[in-house]
Amino acid sequence: MNLEMLVETTVGYRLVKADLSAKANELRNQISSLWTKMLKDQDELQDYLAMYKGFTNSTITQLEEKLKELKLERKEKMKELILASRVALDELWTRCCYTDEQRSQFKPYYVNHYTEDVLDLHELEVERLQFFFEEHKHIYQLATRHEELWERLLHLEEQAKRSDRLFKNRGGQLLLEEKERKLVQKKLPIIKKELISLLEQYKNTTGSDFLYFGQPLLEILEQKEEERKVSKENEKLQRKAA
Length: 242
What we know:
Blueprint lengths: L2 H35 L4 H10 L5 H20 L1 H18 L4 H5 L11 H20 L1 H25 L11 H34 L4 E2 L2 E2 H25 L1
Antiparallel strand pairs: 1-2
Helix pairs in contact: 1-3, 4-6, 7-8
């Protein structure tokens, strides 16, 4: 065999090897995707994939058979999988702070027939929301923290208005509450600033507002502060009128 033929043979072998490797990897990806969508045990998946790591013809045949088997099982469990997807959607809608109106926009959730198309739509929606939540998890975390601190601030301010609080100052309770109120007031602007930065990035990227319970989150933050401001002004007017 001359050098030219040797080179051609080597190149051809490498191309075949690359094709087989790509095919085996694609089959593994499809198997993993179906396995996860069907809520099967992940440890079993890893054990199975560990048995068929290479890309020989026999390995590819085994992977193809497993994929066929999973697709058949998926068809047989169509209703069960759709109902499971709806449970997953309920959880994701809650995590993403969806309103009933937002939930109702996904029409396949409410159909009473169980076909492959309906299952496909459910699985795509689950994947979309999972990705959305993970991508914007920090916004949700900050929004929750801001809400908790805001409610605590309002509570402490209400406590400070009570006429009997001086008689319940056990263990320096009033001083502790005042320290906590100042700490909360210090933390809230920091969280809000970070939130605004993330919300502006979101709007610049998507062209739309980040919705939180169906309302732009930035509007919610501003609305809370405006309501608190109005409430304090009304209290001042009431004290002057008294």
